[in-house]
Specification:
Radius of gyration: 30 Å
Strand content: 15-25%
GO molecular function: RNA binding
Protein name: PORR domain-containing protein
Shape: globular
Largest sheet: 3 strands, antiparallel
Organism: Psophocarpus tetragonolobus
InterPro entries: PORR_domain, PORR_fam
Helix content: 40-55%
Structural class: alpha+beta
Number of domains: 3
């Protein structure tokens, strides 16, 4: 009589690795280790469970990494259990050799020497490309609004074309984006000829008022983001000029150091004068509610939903067809088994080249990208905070080394770190409330583009009518 017993074996690695052990009793019993995939070195996403087998009782139990037991009883014949036990001894020997080899590599090779081939992700690249036109318009608007009286001679704007990274002539830009500015004539100096000036249109000014209202509505969110940036830093202090440089990445208002920071003396202390290079924003009080990362909050939510303790861990989403070399798979597998290091913990005792410090750095990058508006930040901007957040000089290799967590885009000739889990295709899954500002700005631009398209349509119709009329006269 044919009798088959199957045990599901889960190995801890870079993915859930389903391992089926087949114990077959039919005349001469046989076990097929090839079905496990272990001999082939199959490794995939993170698992949170290890399996413990009560072989003598035929009981299969699972226990999570925090010691929370869950039991799944499956009874087997004594012959099947003995066969499985023999094969497990072989697997254990193979696994021990692999672990010894891997651990020896940890001591002989540095983290930075582990290389992963960069692979393009067209979907995430499109998400970046989609925003280029809007950012171009925002740079031109910023240039005008920063001028005294928020007006600028058109010829001055032409001279700043390179600084604004404007790929077309200033006149062409104005024609392509009607509704942003009003063009009028005025004198630069008394007794000079009038020249063309630009000023914000009524529609643009209405948008700017709506933008300020959105900032006011989301002030608690902005305060929490600012506190988190300080709490993750080495000495709980960050250069004010650096924060001004990244205000657009995190959705801070233009004048947040002047208008917002003084309103919260319980959290912030500003020293020096912003813009002079010697101004710093210090954290005054530590708020425990702000000291929870996105990863930790997600683990808490999963624990409440499942009723078991879930440890914080990163979501890993390797792109389709992406393959890691065996050495890198082993390194990442064991690295993922390390305890999560919160970006808000004090890590002054950790060695900069240790795996634990790598874990912490990945946690900081994950948290920074999660706090950003678009869940992505250009690498040069992150590089400005190497000292504050203890990043190594070669920190950008972290994004390729952990390709299942991050994507390093090269779109536009600028390296941009992208958080994979934040996107479904090219769309953000959870949108930051401050992105309402971008939505309204896009609506403003699209209204102007529709206006231009209608003007071009009417112009083409007029040309066609004129040509038809001319053809009629010639034929007559």
């Amino acid at each position: 009589m044919h009798q088959t017993s199957v045990i599901g074996l889960q190995m801890c690695g870079y993915s859930h690795m389903g391992v089926d052990i087949l114990a077959e009793k039919k005349g001469a019993p046989g076990i097929c280790p090839q079905q496990t995939g272990y001999s082939q070195g199959v490794v995939g996403e993170t698992v949170r469970e290890k399996c413990i087998w009560g072989l003598t009782t035929g009981l299969c139990r699972t226990v999570d990494v925090h010691g929370v037991w869950r039991t799944n009883c499956q009874h087997f014949s004594l012959t099947s259990v003995v066969l499985v036990a023999r094969w497990l001894v072989q697997v254990q020997a193979m696994f021990s050799k692999t672990k010894i080899h891997t651990l020896s590599n940890f001591h002989t090779r540095s983290i930075s020497s582990l290389k992963v081939v960069w692979r393009k992700d067209p979907t995430l690249d499109r998400a970046i490309e989609f925003d280029k036109r809007y950012k171009q318009c925002a740079r031109v608007i910023k240039e005008v609004l920063n001028e005294p009286g928020q007006v600028i001679p058109l010829r001055y704007l032409k001279k700043r074309r390179e600084r604004m990274r404007l790929k077309v002539k200033a006149e062409t830009f104005l024609n392509q984006n009607p509704g942003l500015f009003d063009v009028y004539y005025d004198r630069i100096k008394p007794k000079t000829e009038p020249v063309r000036f630009l000023r914000a249109s009524d529609r643009l000014r209405q948008f700017l008022e709506e933008e300020q209202q959105i900032f006011r509505d989301n002030e608690p969110l902005i305060v929490s983001k600012l506190c988190k940036l300080l709490m993750m830093s080495k000495n709980k202090v960050v250069s004010a000029d650096k924060l001004l440089h990244v205000k657009r990445e995190f959705g801070f208002p233009n004048d947040f150091l002047v208008d917002l920071v003084p309103k919260y003396p319980q959290y912030f202390r500003l020293t020096g004068f912003p813009g002079e290079g010697k101004s710093f924003l210090e954290l005054v009080d530590w708020n425990p509610e702000f000291a929870k990362s996105v990863v930790e909050r997600r683990a808490e939510e999963e624990s409440e939903r499942l009723g078991i303790r879930v440890r914080p861990s990163f979501n890993v989403q390797l792109p389709r067809g992406f393959v890691l070399k065996k050495e890198m798979r082993e390194w990442v597998r064991d690295w993922m088994e390390l305890d999560y290091v919160s970006p808000y913990e004090d890590v002054s005792h950790l060695d900069q080249a240790s795996r634990e410090m790598e874990k912490r750095s990945v946690g900081v990058f994950h948290e920074l990208l999660s706090l950003s508006l678009h869940k992505r930040i250009p690498v040069p901007i992150l590089g400005k905070f190497c000292d504050e957040y203890r990043f190594s000089n070669a920190f950008s290799s972290t994004f390729t080394r952990h390709s299942g967590i991050f994507y390093l885009s090269l779109k536009g000739g600028i390296e941009t770190a992208v958080l994979r889990e934040a996107y479904r295709g090219e769309e953000l899954i959870d949108r930051d409330p401050l992105l309402r500002i971008k939505d309204k700005f896009v609506d403003l631009l699209k209204e102007g583009w529709r206006q231009r398209a209608e003007q071009l349509r009417l112009k083409q119709e007029k040309i066609r009518e004129d040509m038809e009329l001319m053809a009629t006269k010639v034929g007559g």
